[in-house]
Design a protein that fits this description.
It comes from Streptomyces millisiae. Belongs to the polysaccharide lyase 1 family. This protein has about 325 residues and is mainly beta. The chain is about 10% helix and about 35% strand. The chain is globular and about 55 Å long.
Length: about 325
């Protein structure tokens, strides 16, 4: 492990402080724009991860601690599980054997465009140690033996941004078990079926009133289902995502969840929006200002709490998403 404690010239941005800007400078990540839109990417968490709640003012990750570079799974697990803040820079391809537990006040950031976690994944929080205030950015996740990332056990204030997810075993990115205030932004999901689950199961009613999640500017690229599939949560805000060639469905709201599907672009998606799915009861879902190209008719039901009661946002014109989202998602682009 390399411990970077001296001042570092500014070449990148992360969550809003000089310390994290220095961390991304060390990581050699480019701050830039989506070429078609000339869009400057966020340097701080937005959506639900930005909300002041549960004793946490937004999501800042490990900015209070030192910046350390890791190149192997042993060091990654040690620092991610430490009871003190860290900015952890992942360099190169890191092999892990199972789920690495990430506890509170951590930033885990990939170096450049080649940082990868493979063979296992990251679990935010355990039953005794919370995974609150965690930032995950600029990482490729492949070949996980379970979930690639699991936000669980009441973890809150989590920002997952500019990552690439593929070829896992179960879910690519699951949010469950009373977790809350999460933003998932500018990620590329591909080469997989079960993509993003929100809510543990039909019988886990403790998720009701939690699981507030924002999904924006993600590319669901040929993945089959769960973009996301939601139980009990309200509101889940799904806006400005690009859906392409999703064989089973786009979004599913079930078990009385409240989901707003807004200003997305659906292309070749036979069932873009479901209310209820499989054996799960119907959820409430509102859709507005979406584009449907060679896609089916969305199902809607009831009303949903407005995300603007929690945070402000301005959606992009959904017609621009097929060019701006693929140009901006994934690693090496923050």
């Amino acid at each position: 492990m390399k411990d970077h404690r001296s001042p570092i010239s500014r070449r990148g941005l992360l969550a809003g402080t000089a310390a994290t800007a220095a961390a991304l400078a060390t990581a050699n990540v480019t701050t830039g724009t989506a070429h078609a839109a000339r869009r400057t990417f966020a340097s701080t968490a937005d959506g639900f991860a930005s909300v002041n709640a549960l004793g946490q003012n937004g999501t800042t990750g490990g900015v209070a601690g030192p910046t350390v570079t890791v190149t192997n799974g042993t060091d990654l697990a040690s620092l991610a599980g430490a009871n003190t803040p860290y900015v952890i820079l992942v360099s190169g391809r890191v092999q892990v054997d199972d789920m690495v537990t990430v506890v509170a006040n951590k930033s885990i950031i990939g170096v450049g465009s080649t940082a990868e976690i493979t063979g296992g994944g990251l679990q935010l929080g355990s039953t005794t140690r919370p995974g609150n205030n965690v930032v995950i950015r600029n990482l490729r996740f492949t070949g996980a033996s379970d979930d690639s990332v699991s936000v669980t056990n009441s973890a809150h204030h989590v920002w997952i941004d500019h990552c690439d997810f593929s070829d896992g075993y179960d879910g690519l990115l699951d949010i469950k078990r009373q977790s809350d205030y999460v933003t998932v932004s500018w990620n590329h999901f591909h080469s997989h079926s079960k993509t993003c689950l929100v809510g543990h199961s039909d019988s886990y009613t403790a998720d009701r009133g939690r699981l507030r999640v924002t999904y924006h500017h993600n590319f669901f690229d040929g993945t089959e289902q769960r973009h996301p599939r939601v139980r009990f949560a309200e509101p889940v805000h799904v806006y400005n995502n690009y859906y392409r060639n999703n064989a089973l469905y786009g979004v599913a709201s079930t078990e009385d969840a409240g989901v707003l599907v807004e200003a997305n672009y659906f292309e070749n998606v036979p069932h873009p929006v479901y209310s209820g799915y499989d054996e799960s009861g119907p959820g409430r879902v509102v859709e507005r200002n979406n584009v449907y190209v060679n896609s089916g008719t969305p199902q809607t039901l009831g009303t949903v709490v407005e995300p603007r009661t929690y945070y402000s946002y301005t959606p992009d014109d959904p017609r621009t998403l097929p060019s701006t989202v693929p140009a901006g998602v994934g690693v090496g682009r923050i």
